[in-house]
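Batch manifest, entry 17 of 40.
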Amino acid sequence: MRMLLATRNAGKIAELRHILAEAAPSVELVGLDAVEDYPETPETELTFAGNALLKARDGATRTGLPTVADDSGLAVDALNGMPGVLSARWAGRAKDDEANNALLLDQLADLDDDKRGATFVCAAALVWPDGRELVVHGEMPGRLGREPRGANGFGYDPLFIPDGYDITSAEMSTDEKNAISHRGRAFRELASGI
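Output type: structure tokens
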């Protein structure tokens, strides 16, 4: 079955292909670059689930393919759950991972290590062309380090240390990260509904 992943983020496409290859091997996952061009759906909702559904509904309507979309981000305890749905744009509209990480480190600079708790959150939506919808959630709790470490990942991965580990998400192998990640948990649950 051919299924659209409503993103142009190459890192996210690779990560989700890897997850779905194990959980739903009959699915051929393609990104927005593989279908007729249409503008990416703006994330205008105030929740991860709302944004995921917007993108999945738009993709299914525009392409006629079952469409998967997710919205995910980092919820920092000391920032009352922010950056949340604004994670990709925390330092501005450019979706600049380095700038987002630098701003977050600056905002948390005075906090002791025991007050640097955070959780990666993911809402994943699957919308079929006939209107059926499925939304699932996944979380990965942890804490934020004091400097970026590792090169395997994107976004806040170089700062995020999952509970039970002393290494960042960006220092983990792809398989190790996918086994515990918020996206891995959400997409394995989603794949069970395909």
